[in-house]
Amino acid sequence: MLLEIDRHCYSVPHQLLKQEVSARITARTIEIFHRGKRVACHLRSRQQRRHTTIAEHMPSSHRRYAGWTHEKLCSDAHRIGRDTGTLVELILQRKPHPEQGFRACVGILRLAKTYGPERLEAASSRALVIGGLSYTSVASILKNHLDHRRSEPEPELPLLQHANIRGPGYFH
């Protein structure tokens, strides 16, 4: 759980989710209280749109992602291929906080163990083309073997000939 103060987010123990807390804000610290008892203390940060998190405040299911960073995810994805790297970067960019996309990106990278890096790269390429920027889309592409199919070019339509059609020369 995060508490936002001056556009910076500070962690609160996850057990207090949906509970009312209060904060004592000084020039140097942020203290968070629940029912009069101090439950967290952070050094105050002036960086906006950032997080200050204590690992113990996260549920155990989230702690496994604590070592992941935006750079590590992108680097691992680019090792698989250009399109996988681009897909991971787009997922992270589309979230208000990149950390919100970590779980999807870790899941996509894990698909390489099951399907292999070549198929994951092909599936990532297809996901980019169709706009399926999620773990679910990539997993579905792989599961249904859509990564093997080539996207067919759209057939060219014949030019219409009519007296009321002016053409590009009319506008010069």
Secondary structure layout plus pairing:
Elements: E1 2-5, E2 8-11, E3 22-25, E4 29-34, E5 37-43, E6 51-52, H1 60-63, H2 70-80, H3 82-94, H4 102-115, H5 117-130, H6 135-143
Parallel strand pairs: 2-6
Antiparallel strand pairs: 1-2, 3-4, 4-5
Helix pairs in contact: 2-3, 2-4, 3-5, 4-5, 4-6, 5-6
**Helicity range of the residues?**
25-40%
Oligomeric organization of the protein chains: single chain
Average pLDDT level: 88
Beta content comes to 15-25%
Taken in chain order, the helices and strands follow as EEEEEEHHHHHH
CA radius of gyration: 24 Å
Domain count? 2
In short:
By secondary structure, this protein is α+β, with helices and mostly antiparallel strands. Helices cover 38% and strands 16% of the residues.
